[in-house]
């Protein structure tokens, strides 16, 4: 739909609705207007007989119609996007790049909309968020609250649709699919006639000034409110308002009693949920892209299939795992509560310049090579490595994952070993040096002699077509997500074209960007269609760094870039994890799981695999270059697997964990303790009750820390005259909290509290 056409369409709908809403008032002037029009017509006819109409220089004067009582603010028709309505609406957020790229939200995800809404003088304004589909049909309406009267700033937490955990292969997903795509958010400003009247009437009744006129105006207003179709009142609501109008108009009662009838709890509630909206003024529509479940709220688990089920034979030689033995990895991911399993490349691995253990330049006779050195005489990106199995084995792997409710994400690294079929078939897809050799990949100081990067300048369209063909093949085999390796080293336009083509054919497919790069590039990749992104979370370790990064991830940035928090990856093992042992792994897991709706764990985390390769920020004996034989029974003695399971359970049970737009940093007075709160209001949880999760973490893996954590109770709707009952979800203990709360956390006991409010 053309944007301008859409805007004008909304304007016409707004005007049409207003005509209906003001029908009662219009009836009072219809007869007078008809007489005036008839008189004009008669006079014009007479004058036309005397002289040409083209010479007429003035219109006949007619008497103005006098309105008894106050005239409701009219709806002023807008015929172009820059025109104001009767009430002014400006500076709507989110709105990046002048609305060129729509904000993004998962179906049912709670998010914040803000705007400046105001009217002239001391008249009071109100504001509402209207959620509309692309046909302009309103599907939901949310009241806004003025959070900064001095700046006329209003805000509301809203959602589009209902949260769902259905997967693309589940029965009922077709209904989910119909709700996806582009929606519009419209901020509607309006004159709050009731609030304006009530403000003045209370003063006049108190001082005895012009009381009768004030109360009569109120009675008329309540009667008009009861008849307003726009307010969407029930029969009982209308009855409440009309009975109040009668009482307010009853001159046999004293003024205080009459006024009280207009200020009952029932009417205050209606003013909140079903107000009288005079002078309704709709903003230009703001575009939102609604994406499927797991586009925002997801828990990832990564493992290498060749290590699953691997063992030592009688001669001490490692026998690698296969896609069949890798089913154990799926079972472990399910048991720990994850919902996406992510595999590194499963394609044939090149022989030329194959890397040995720990990235050595010369491979031993039994070294399997890096899965990222893709391609051999056995095939390229469209082939399963025969050492892992066949395409049928992979399809069976995906089928088992789907039976467990797990999605399969496949790593797509757009690069080749020197043995990849593309090297001979498409030599112009690679960068050739002046001496005629093909340049290998570099990211100084790192060198990847076993990898040829792609050169997009000669035939980008041909590369796009081949990538689209390959992705289509894997989607048909059962893949629903691609984790793209280093997309920031390829043209953004390339990914924009590929993602558009793939999702047009398979709209359920999601894309995760492994892009550790500059903010502009990361934002551009999000605009191009990447659903989620790796990020700099592993290197944000101090309280100050974390508070800043949590706010950034869970603020307006979250409408475009969905940061996924991974404590470690095969490429990343930070000094923090190296130096802080089991407690450090617990700390980073809690921060990742509760700090972002999307988080991930690379397997081996449960076994505290935290020894670095000297001089590098990655594991020694890195799984990228060798097959790992693990004893998973050993994980019980560390307790991390149990913690991961608990964190995923908490996330699944609490709607507050699902949004990129509801995190609040809480003041805490110790530099080693960070505290934050997530809250989703009752009307958006699906349970009818507000959901609040409070997280407090000791960042020090060696020492105990104590802190006072402050909660500004009224800001979150908590009572101030009784204790705030909270449950510690990791241990089951319960506490009474309040404004200021003493917390003591030790690495040998509790490294963190994950509290949920059970009674406020």
Label this structure with key terms.
760 residues; Immunoglobulin-like; disordered N terminus
Q: Write down the Rg.
A: 32 Å
Main sheet strand line-up:
22-21-20-15-14-11-24-23
Write the CATH fold name of one domain. Answer: Immunoglobulin-like
The end-to-end span amounts to: 46 Å
Question: Residue share in helices?
Answer: 25-40%
Number of helices: 18
The average pLDDT is 91
Q: How many extended strands?
A: 32
CATH architecture of one domain: Sandwich
Q: What structural category do the secondary elements indicate?
A: alpha/beta
Specify the CATH homologous superfamily of one domain. Immunoglobulins
Q: Biggest β-sheet, characterized?
A: 8 strands, parallel
Low-confidence stretches: 1-60
CATH class of one domain: Mainly Beta
Keywords: Carbohydrate metabolism, Glycosyltransferase, Transferase
EC number: 2.4.99.16
Pfam family, one: GlgE_dom_N_S
GO molecular function, one term: hexosyltransferase activity
What does this structure look like?
The protein has 760 residues and is α/β, with parallel strands linked by helices. Among the domains are: 88-291, Immunoglobulins (Immunoglobulin-like); 663-759, Golgi alpha-mannosidase II (Immunoglobulin-like, Sandwich), CATH 2.60.40.1180. It is 31% helix and 21% strand. The chain has 18 helices and 32 strands. A hairpin with a 5-residue loop joins strand 29 and strand 30 (734-737). It is elongated, with a radius of gyration of 32 Å. The two termini are 46 Å apart. Residues 1-60 have low confidence and may be disordered.
Please outline the helices and strands:
Layout: H1 3-21, H2 23-50, E1 88-93, E2 103-106, E3 111-118, E4 125-132, E5 138-143, E6 145-148, E7 153-158, H3 173-178, E8 181-191, H4 193-207, H5 211-226, H6 235-249, H7 255-260, H8 265-273, E9 278-282, E10 286-291, E11 298-302, E12 311-312, E13 318-319, H9 327-335, E14 340-343, H10 391-403, E15 407-412, E16 415-416, H11 421-425, E17 441-443, E18 446-448, E19 452-453, H12 460-477, E20 481-485, H13 492-505, E21 510-514, H14 519-528, E22 532-533, H15 543-553, E23 564-565, H16 575-595, E24 598-602, H17 640-653, E25 663-666, E26 673-680, H18 682-685, E27 691-698, E28 705-710, E29 724-728, E30 734-737, E31 740-745, E32 752-759
């Amino acid at each position: 739909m053309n944007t301008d056409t859409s805007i004008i369409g909304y304007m016409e709908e707004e005007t049409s609705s207003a005509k209906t809403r003001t029908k009662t008032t219009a009836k009072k002037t219809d007869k007078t207007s008809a007489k005036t029009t008839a008189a004009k017509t008669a006079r014009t006819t007479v004058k036309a007989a005397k002289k040409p109409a083209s010479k007429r220089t003035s219109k006949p004067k007619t008497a103005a119609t006098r309105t008894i009582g106050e005239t409701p603010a009219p709806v002023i028709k807008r015929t172009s996007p820059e025109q104001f309505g009767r009430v002014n609406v400006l500076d709507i957020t989110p709105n990046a790049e002048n609305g060129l790229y729509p904000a993004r939200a998962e179906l049912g995800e709670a998010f914040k909309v803000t705007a400046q809404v105001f009217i002239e003088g001391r008249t009071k304004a109100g504001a509402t968020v209207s959620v509309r589909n692309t046909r302009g049909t309103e599907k939901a309406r949310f009241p806004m609250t003025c959070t900064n009267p001095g700046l006329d700033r209003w805000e509301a937490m809203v959602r589009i649709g209902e949260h769902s955990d259905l997967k693309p292969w589940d029965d009922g997903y077709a209904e989910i699919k119909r709700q996806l795509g582009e929606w519009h958010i419209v901020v509607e400003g309006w004159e709050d006639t009731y609030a304006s009247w009530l403000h003045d009437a209370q003063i006049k009744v108190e001082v005895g000034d012009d009381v009768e006129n004030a109360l009569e105006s109120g009675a008329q207003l309540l009667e008009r409110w009861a008849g307003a179709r726009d307010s969407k009142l029930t029969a009982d609501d209308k009855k409440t308002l009309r009975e109040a109008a009668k009482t307010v108009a009853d001159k046999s009662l004293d003024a205080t009693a009459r006024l009280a009838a207009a200020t009952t709890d029932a009417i205050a509630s209606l003013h909140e949920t079903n107000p009288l909206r005079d002078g309704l003024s709709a903003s230009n529509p703001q575009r939102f892209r609604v994406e499927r479940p797991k586009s925002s709220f997801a828990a990832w688990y990564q493992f290498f299939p060749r290590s699953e089920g691997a063992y030592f034979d009688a001669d001490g030689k490692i026998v690698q795992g296969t896609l069949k033995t890798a089913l154990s990895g799926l079972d472990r991911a399910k048991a720990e509560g994850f919902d996406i399993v992510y595999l590194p490349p499963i394609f044939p691995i090149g022989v030329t310049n194959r890397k040995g253990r720990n990235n050595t330049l010369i491979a031993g006779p039994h070294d399997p090579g890096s899965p990222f050195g893709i391609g051999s005489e056995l095939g390229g990106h469209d082939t399963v490595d025969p050492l892992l199995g066949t395409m049928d084995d992979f399809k069976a792997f995906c089928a088992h994952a789907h039976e467990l409710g797990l999605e399969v994400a496949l790593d797509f690294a757009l690069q080749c070993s020197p043995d990849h079929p593309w090297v001979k078939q498409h030599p112009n897809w690679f960068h050739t040096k002046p001496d005629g050799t093909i340049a290998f990949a570099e990211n100084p100081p790192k060198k990847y002699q076993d990898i040829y990067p792609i050169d997009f300048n000669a035939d980008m369209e041909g590369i796009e077509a081949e990538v689209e063909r390959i992705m289509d093949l894997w989607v048909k085999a059962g893949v629903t997500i691609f984790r793209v390796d280093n997309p920031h080293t390829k043209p953004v336009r390339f990914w924009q074209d590929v993602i558009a083509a793939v999702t047009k054919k398979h709209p359920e497919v999601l894309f995760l960007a492994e892009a550790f790069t500059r903010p502009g590039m990361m934002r551009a990749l999000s605009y191009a269609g990447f659903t989620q992104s790796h990020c700099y979370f592993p290197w944000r370790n101090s309280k100050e760094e974390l508070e800043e990064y949590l706010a950034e991830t869970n603020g307006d940035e979250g409408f475009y870039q969905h940061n996924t928090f991974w404590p470690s990856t095969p490429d990343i093992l930070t000094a923090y994890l190296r130096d802080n042992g089991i407690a450090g792994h617990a700390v980073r897991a809690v921060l990742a799981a509760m700090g972002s709706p999307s988080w991930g764990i690379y397997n081996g985390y449960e076994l505290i695999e935290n020894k670095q390769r000297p001089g590098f920020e990655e594991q020694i004996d890195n799984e990228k270059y060798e097959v790992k034989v693990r004893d998973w029974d050993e994980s019980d003695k560390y307790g991390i697997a149990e913690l991961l399971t608990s964190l995923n359970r908490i996330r699944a049970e609490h709607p507050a964990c699902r949004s990129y737009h509801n995190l609040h940093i809480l003041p805490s007075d110790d530099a080693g303790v960070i505290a934050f709160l997530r809250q989703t209001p009752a009307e958006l949880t699906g349970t009818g009750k507000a959901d609040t999760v409070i997280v407090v973490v000791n960042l020090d893996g060696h020492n105990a820390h104590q802190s006072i954590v402050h909660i500004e109770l009224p800001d979150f709707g908590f009572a101030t005259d009784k204790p705030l009952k909270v449950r510690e979800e990791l241990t089951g203990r319960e506490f009474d909290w309040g404004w200021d709360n003493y917390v003591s956390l030790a690495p040998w006991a509790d490294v963190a509290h994950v509290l949920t409010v059970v009674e406020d």
